[in-house]
């Protein structure tokens, strides 16, 4: 396995008669050998373009890509030793699973093809790893989405790549398959220790699989950190809003200068840091960090309560505040519409952002 580094990587798509699209605007990333990095962002943020440039399927407008310290930018895809498992599987329908896997091996070894025995041994070995042994003679059409996904993964792995690229590996799976395949993927990646980039728009996928996450928007990395760092200390409003389910409450307010944010004439929350008086800010409080208490706290009216099994979700109205507040409630809490409650938040868990730039002020 090798380290992977992206240096100031850029991509501008130019097509005649159309404005140029700056899809990737100077990305810097360093992956340790064996690390799994999640590249997370909304549709159109440049994730796939980044992956395709690393794989050699897309030209680079600027910057460099280094595998094990050596630039691969000038090399064609087949000479990069990078394994790619794409969203749409790209399996060959007339071939059996075993043949699809062997094909992956041969495609790279053109000229220096391994012996038949060696190919068969590698196919058997990788099939065992990803639990495909019983399906080696099946055709792709007869497989479930999760099984097809495992074949695509096995085909990328059989090349013993220096770097593994996974593009939305779980997006075609139903909820139950996604859970099991995600666990399998984590186990396999952990066992084999490939340096891996996983592209996804699904925060759960990124949070559960990745050692570190790079959150991307408009071709720029907004924040790079461990899942906990991203979740606990979002660098800006975009990251705070993109990561977390239900989404963080983001409420515009004015700093009072004495460690509070005023959200309306009667509603204010304590801030984790001192902010200059009259500065326009946005406070962020995660639904799970709000406490419904009988004692102190801000008066609120319940506008809806969804009691789920392990927890509930309360939607609350604060006096004079336009946006509703969403709070997670414990399994024992029963609320009715229009009930009056008090809601509070630990200032240590409250986030504060500049209203204009969106940057965190913590
Ligand atoms: N071949 C192309 N020609 C022109 N523009 C492109 C091309 N491919 C992608 N783009 C544009 O580049 C930007 C980034 O696209 P990209 O597919 O990398 O984003 P993404 O984050 O992977 O989104 P998705 O998850 O929807 O694939 C988008 O604005 C997209 O429209």
Automatic annotation (TrEMBL):
Organism encoding this protein: Streptomyces albiflavescens
Residues annotated as domain ABC transporter: 4-243
Stored PANTHER family: MALTODEXTRIN IMPORT ATP-BINDING PROTEIN MSMX, OSMOPROTECTIVE COMPOUNDS UPTAKE ATP-BINDING PROTEIN GGTA
InterPro entries: AAA+_ATPase, ABC_transporter-like_ATP-bd, ABC_transporter-like_CS, ABC_transpr_MalK/UgpC-like, Mo/tungstate-bd_C_term_dom, NA-bd_OB-fold, OB_MalK-like, P-loop_NTPase
GO cellular component term, pick one: ATP-binding cassette (ABC) transporter complex, substrate-binding subunit-containing
Domain of life, source organism: Bacteria
Keywords: ATP-binding, Nucleotide-binding, Transport
Designated name of the protein: ABC transporter
SMART domains: AAA
GO MF annotation list: ABC-type transporter activity; ATP binding; ATP hydrolysis activity
């Amino acid at each position: 396995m090798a380290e992977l580094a992206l240096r100031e990587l850029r991509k501008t798509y130019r097509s005649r008669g159309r404005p140029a699209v700056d899809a990737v605007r100077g990305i810097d990333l360093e992956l340790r050998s064996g690390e799994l990095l999640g590249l997370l962002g909304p549709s159109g943020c440049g994730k796939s373009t980044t992956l395709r440039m690393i794989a050699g399927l897309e030209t680079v407008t600027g910057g460099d890509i280094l595998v094990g310290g050596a630039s691969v930018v000038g090399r064609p895809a087949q000479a990069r030793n990078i394994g790619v498992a794409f969203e749409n599987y790209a399996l060959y329908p007339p071939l059996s699973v075993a043949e699809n896997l062997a094909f992956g091996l041969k495609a790279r070894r053109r000229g220096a093809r391994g012996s038949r025995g060696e190919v068969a041994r590698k196919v058997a070995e990788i099939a065992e790893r990803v639990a495909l042994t019983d399906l080696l003679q099946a055709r792709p059409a007869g497989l479930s989405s999760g099984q097809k996904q495992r074949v695509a993964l096995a085909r990328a792995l059989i090349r013993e790549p220096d770097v593994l690229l996974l593009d939305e590996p779980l997006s075609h799976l139903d909820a139950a398959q996604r859970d099991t395949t995600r666990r399998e993927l984590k186990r396999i990646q952990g066992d084999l220790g490939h340096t891996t980039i996983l592209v996804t728009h699904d925060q759960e996928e990124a949070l559960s699989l990745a050692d570190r996450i790079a959150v991307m928007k408009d071709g720029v990395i907004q924040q790079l950190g461990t899942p906990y760092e991203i979740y606990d200390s979002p660098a800006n409003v975009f990251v705070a809003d993109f990561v977390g389910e239900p989404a963080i409450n983001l409420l515009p307010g004015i700093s009072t200068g004495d460690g509070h944010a005023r959200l309306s004439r009667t509603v204010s929350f304590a801030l984790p840091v001192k902010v200059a008086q009259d500065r326009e800010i946005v406070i962020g409080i995660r639904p799970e960090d709000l406490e419904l208490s009988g004692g102190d706290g801000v008066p609120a009216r319940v506008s809806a309560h969804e009691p789920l099994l392990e927890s509930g979700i309360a939607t609350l109205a604060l006096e004079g505040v336009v946006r509703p507040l969403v709070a997670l409630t414990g399994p024992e809490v029963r609320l009715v519409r229009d009930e009056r409650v008090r809601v509070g938040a630990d200032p240590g868990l409250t986030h504060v952002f500049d209203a204009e730039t969106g940057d965190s002020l913590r």
